[in-house]
Amino acid sequence: MTPRFAAPDTRAIPLKILPRAGFDDWLAAQDDPVRDWVTASGFTADAGSVLRLPAPDMSVSRVLLGWGGAKDRARGRFLAAKAATALGRGTYALDGDLTANETEEAALGWLLSSYRFTRYAGDPVDPPMLKAPRGVDAARLEAIAAGEFLTRDLINTPASDMGPDDLEKAVRDLATVHGAAVEVTAGDALLDANLPMIHAVGRASTRAPRLIDMTWTGPGAEDGPAVTLVGKGVCFDTGGLNLKPAASMGLMKKDMGGAATVLGLAHMVMATARPIRLRVLIPAVENAVAGNAFRPGDILTARNGLTVEINNTDAEGRLVLADALALADETPPDLMICMATLTGAARVAVGPDLSPFYADDDALAMALMHAGARVRDPLWRMPFHRPYETMIEPGIADLDNAPLGGFAGSITAALFLDRFVRDTPRFAHFDIYGWNPTAAPARPKGGVGMGARAIFDALPGILDA
């Protein structure tokens, strides 16, 4: 479904937001029937609690939404989404003393709560509707939610229906909606185009590897700032000849989560007509096992001429990204963002909720961090720790794709990718998870976008700096 707000003239039931502080005073000011109903129901404004207040005809006159205390709101995002989940069909309007950021988060959370993945089971449902609160940019929030829905759908779709060819179709469909252009280099043509590592990783699959290149120019942005998004599109990762055990392979349909996330972000940018020149590069492959699979011990030569010793075929994401980053760097954009479900080390470091990212540019990093805090899309800056460069230099080749020892796995992967970005002035790499293991308000279990809302929010300030 397309996330949207109710029409402005729709009659709506007030949704009264009540923080715990001041709740007793509010209750004391109500008439006896309301006070008795609230007291008998045990409602005390706990975070996310919902109570319907009846009218004399027993219809719902108002709904109370507990807002808890400051610590509750810091611990839990999208409290208003709890009301959207608890309430049945109908139209509601926020009623409460919220800051601008809180109002925007509440409205976006309501939209995000309507997501359902019903491609294979279940039926679409008519969610409760919310009138766009006064002061929020409704079209912008609808674009953000739609971008997130696209990301979730792509990640949730199993590899049987989301191979490199299917991912290409998803890009072409998005381009058609927004008037973007798409060029694809696939199969052995990758070798002719000097994209050898994308070819090497994907050649063992029956579904041809490819580089998907989408470009779009915003209104009046012919000479505007250029932004390139690069997303890892490993549609399924068996580990290659270093075959993953079953426990590690079960979620590998999500290994194209970086591609899914940059496509969701691209939708946000294009749907809101940002005045930029946008390029999206997705190396789309399946890391499979066959007689022509690349092997441990092989040495590959990347697009930019660097040689890479393969010490583990399960560290394939950085290989396909390397060629794409090198290509992007040949016509340096003003800003390049790389997003990938790259390392388990990142999950060990920060868990599934935070998006760790790497950036040498302090102003860029601070802009991203501040945006992440503002829109509740939490990020964590990680270090490009240069003394670890020696860990990715095996001696027999320029680079090692999987340093031994297990130390600093996310950092060494980021340092590897950084070797392929030489001329772009501002570069950030996100090592995301792309999966929500436990259902939370506005974030059901399954595929999830990470970092995209923060990047989207930060873009104007970054590009104007």
UniProtKB/TrEMBL annotation:
Instruction: Offer one example of a GO biological process linked to this entry.
Output: proteolysis
User: Which Gene Ontology cellular-component terms appear in the entry?
Assistant: cytoplasm
Q: EC number(s) in its UniProt entry?
A: 3.4.11.1
Q: Does the keyword Hydrolase apply?
A: yes
How is this protein named in the record? Cytosol aminopeptidase
Instruction: Supply the source organism for this entry.
Output: Jannaschia rubra
Q: Which InterPro entries match?
A: Leucine_aapep/pepB (IPR011356), Macro_dom-like (IPR043472), Peptidase_M17_C (IPR000819), Peptidase_M17_N_1 (IPR048816)
MF GO annotations: manganese ion binding; metalloaminopeptidase activity
Against PANTHER family, the record matches this protein to: LEUCINE AMINOPEPTIDASE-RELATED (PTHR11963), PEPTIDASE B (PTHR11963:SF20)
Which top class of enzyme applies to this chain?
hydrolase
Reply yes or no: does the keyword Protease apply.
yes
Q: Which residues form the Cytosol aminopeptidase domain?
A: 312-319
Which Pfam families does the UniProt record give?
Answer: Peptidase_M17 (PF00883), Peptidase_M17_N_1 (PF21337)
Q: Which family does it belong to?
A: Belongs to the peptidase M17 family.
State the source organism's domain of life: Bacteria
Keywords attached to this entry: Aminopeptidase, Hydrolase, Manganese, Protease
